[in-house]
Specification:
The structure holds 2 protein chains of 2 kinds. Chain A is mainly α. Chain A is built from 16 helices and no strands. The chains are: A mainly alpha, B mainly alpha.
């Protein structure tokens, strides 16, 4: 690619460029970009708006064509009705337990492994690292059948709570990820090694160094990993669909899918359930928006 | 001599410490990530039907069956059509929105939040809303069509249209992600280059085309690869909206794989499909990197 070469700046061209820009701006009292952004925003938000509107309609109102774009009576009863039809509170608790446990396990296990790969020399380090990174290339669908068999076996022979049908089955297989290990290793390698060496000379052991020195310096990386892991876990559907076979152990996406199967045309009820399913994550996301955005943007910058 | 003994001891201690640190993660990743790669390959050479007692080695018979299975051929075709529409569609929407949003304006926080919000919604919630929007009898989209005097459509009930409805809903669902990636890249475009081009008399379009777009190419390559990997693994929206129908029109590879594995318990055959998917993903990604590198411009 050729970049436009440095131009000799004559005052004439500068003035011309400025008048062109000024001329473009003066026609409208506001930036023309609003004319693009407002319809785009309406298109992006409309599904959310329609979801909420339908969730307070009566069944009769929802089955009207042309649709009423504003409901006549706000029927909040759809929410308790949806709660009576499916335990969304239970789904929420299950999703929360799974997501929070998965995040905590990942932070601990990936930090330990990431630190060892970044700083310690141990037998087989390179080979182990290569094998771990190779698993990153393999899609989940390739490993899901053996994962199902192993999880089933663990439930029968080792720990019932981590077997098929229990929410432990959603935590254990995802308790550490190769992505997390790689991500934290890369970050740890950017930290100055001098503090750690000083602490080691003073007689601290590696665990103390990791806990007292490395982790406090790594808050941004840990936060990024936590945010990405949380989003992934909260929205995961395929593995819960395979591993969970009861309403009581369902997470929100799985519970919502089952709910849809049972009430496929009762739109107000479905949308009330849907609002309850997505509201908690939406609230967390909006409150911690900057933080989630930075994390997602980081995946784009680390990758390629 | 004592120094080297002490050094050797320290190395052994370091080696043990290293292993103590990596073991927990290694057990999890090894058991659920690494071993299953080999295991599913082995399963793909058997007629495993989910009952551990009754499986035997049948060589490459599953792979031979794959080649002659018309559903597999269709599933690959549907997946590729979906990917070919979804990936460029999402990138264009994301680029357009990010360029529009990369400036200081009133209400910009609102515009950006609207795009970001699509990232917080799960695929299942997203699909459920879109099934309702595209409902053939009572949906808003058919209402808008009636206002525009476009004939009413069957959408998800139509074999000819269902896959495209899924393209639309997933583009909406991923648009926030694409906006975030492109906005981050746009903020890395040095303003002096853009200004220099303007001073040289380059129009806005020429500046965008010749300066901005090349500087965005690493982000574009990342998005192309990332979105493609996800598109080839499409499942959730298909499961919720059509279950592969109508008449198999939305049966994509992963849906057929799930159906074979966990509805019919043909673990052997399903594993062969999984390996086929793996190879498709590897080949497509490799091509993207090779072609992409040629068009990717890295500063530094």
């Amino acid at each position: 690619m050729t970049v436009v070469p440095e131009a000799p700046m004559s005052t004439v061209t500068v003035v011309r460029a400025q008048t062109v820009m000024a001329g473009r701006r003066s026609r409208l009292p506001f930036s023309p970009w609003h004319l693009v952004l407002i319809p785009a925003t309406i298109a992006l938000l409309f599904p959310f708006v329609w979801l909420v509107v339908t969730s307070v309609e009566t069944l009769g109102e929802s089955l009207r064509f042309p649709p009423d774009l504003t409901p006549h009576v706000i029927r909040l009863r759809n929410y308790p009705d949806a709660l009576a039809a499916a335990p969304f509170g239970r789904f929420f608790i299950n999703s929360s337990i799974v997501a929070v446990s998965t995040v905590l396990c990942n932070l601990v296990l990936c930090a330990g492994a990431g630190y060892a790969f970044a700083r310690l020399r141990f037998l087989g380090r390179t080979a182990l690292f290569i094998v771990m990174m190779a698993t990153l290339m393999v899609p989940f669908q390739v490993t899901m059948i053996p994962q199902f068999i192993i999880t089933k076996w663990i439930g029968v022979h080792l720990l019932a709570g981590a077997g098929i049908g229990h929410i432990g089955a959603l935590i254990v297989p995802n308790a550490a990820t190769a992505f997390g290990v790689f991500f934290l290793r890369q970050f740890f390698r950017t930290l100055p090694v001098e503090y750690e060496e000083a602490a080691l000379v003073d007689g601290a052991n590696r665990l103390a160094v990791l806990w007292r020195i490395v982790l406090p310096l790594s808050a941004p990386a840990l936060a990024t990993l936590a945010a990405l892991t949380f989003l992934d876990s909260w929205n995961n559907f395929l593995w819960p669909l395979i591993a969970i076979n009861s309403t009581a152990a369902s997470t929100l996406p799985l519970g919502l899918a089952t709910f849809q199967g049972a009430h496929s045309t009762e739109w107000p009820l479905l949308m009330a359930g849907n609002v309850m399913s997505l509201a908690p994550m939406m609230a967390v996301f909006l409150i911690a928006q900057r933080y989630f955005i930075r994390s997602v943007a980081a995946t784009g910058l680390t990758g390629i | 001599v004592t120094v080297s003994v002490a050094l050797g001891r320290r190395r052994r201690v370091e080696s043990l410490t290293g292993w103590a640190f990596v073991t927990p993660a290694t057990v999890i990743i090894g058991l659920f990530g690494a071993a299953p790669i080999i295991w599913s390959l082995l399963i793909s050479f058997t007629n495993d039907n989910g009952l551990s007692s009754a499986s035997s080695f049948i060589g490459v018979r599953n792979y031979k069956a794959l080649v002659h299975d018309p559903v597999v051929t269709q599933a690959i075709a549907h997946t590729l059509v979906y990917t070919a529409l979804f990936v460029p569609g999402t990138m264009l929407v994301g680029l357009f929105l990010a360029v529009a949003m990369n400036r200081k304006l009133r209400f910009m926080w609102l515009y950006r939040t609207a795009a970001y919000a699509t990232m917080a919604i799960s695929t299942i919630s997203e699909a459920l809303v879109f099934i309702w929007l595209f409902d053939p009898s009572f949906g808003v989209v058919n209402y808008v069509f009636s206002l525009l005097r476009i004939p009413q459509q069957a959408f998800l009930n139509s074999p000819a249209e269902a896959l495209y409805v899924i393209v639309v809903m997933t583009i909406w669902g991923w648009s926030g992600f694409a906006v975030v990636i492109y906005l981050a890249a746009l903020q890395g475009v040095p303003q002096d280059l853009v200004e220099a081009a303007a001073i040289d008399g380059a129009g806005r379009w020429a500046t965008f085309r010749r300066i901005t777009l090349p500087l965005l190419s690493p982000a574009s390559l990342f998005l192309a690869v990332w979105l493609t990997i996800n598109a080839l693994q499409l499942f959730d929206e298909v499961y919720l909206s059509t279950r592969g129908g109508p008449l198999g029109a939305t049966t994509v590879v992963v849906f057929y794989l799930w159906d074979q594995a966990f509805q019919n318990f043909n673990f052997g055959y399903a594993s062969a499909i999984a390996y086929l998917l793996f190879i498709v993903i590897l080949v497509v990604t490799a091509i993207q990197f090779r072609v992409g590198r040629r068009f990717t411009y890295y500063r530094s």
